[in-house]
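Journal club side-thread
Mid-discussion, someone asked how the predicted structure for our own chain would compare to the paper's figures. Pasting it here so we can look after the session.
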Amino acid sequence: MNRYTADTFFNGRIKVKQDKSGYRFSIDAVLLADFVRARPKNTVVDLGTGCGIIPLILALRNPEARFFGVEIQPTLAELAEKNVRDNLLKEKIKIINKDMRSITVEMTSGPVDLVVSNPPYRKILSGRVNPCLQRAVARHEIKINLTELLNTAGRILRTAGKFFTIYPAERTIDLIAGMRETGIEPKRIRSIHSAQGTEARLVLMEGVKGGRSGVNIDKPLIIYKNKADYTDEVEKMFCP
């Protein structure tokens, strides 16, 4: 039996295989990819790349940039490499199967322009830990915690390089404090709401290594216009 599902996105321009019973990416990855602002010739690192969905989306939108996806779990790293090959992006995206804490600038041919991460949201002792290891590592701080992730980002970013992430709204203060301790100054924040009039459940955050203080608060991002349909803004995120 085939253990993978095969899905297409962006009018068939991205093909993604995912483990039927393992970790599967959510809309959070699409929201984060849309929030990232890459430029031609940028070098971009995705920390905790999973099946490689974020580099795949960003490479489609930024064909002149170069990407690295770092993934500690061998089965997911292997799947990410397969997705890169299937999308004919071997020349654009390199998957690194390592603990992100061991990543150095030598592995990325020097300091990078952008670091992106959709990290585990929950502390190790908070809530039920999924019995599936892939899902547990993706959701709980089992292999990496927020401080270690930010230290990695700060270490490999060039001065004035940018960091992008998505994180639970209830942990916003932890994220801001951690970024500042690492020398990454928060510069742009956008709250994410399931529907109009609901509390924020997530935040998108952009920071600049060595940046000056001062932050912009973007308008809220609303996911659903009714119980079943995405808002027009979110629908456009699934377009090339």
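Post-session note: The chain has one domain: 4-237.
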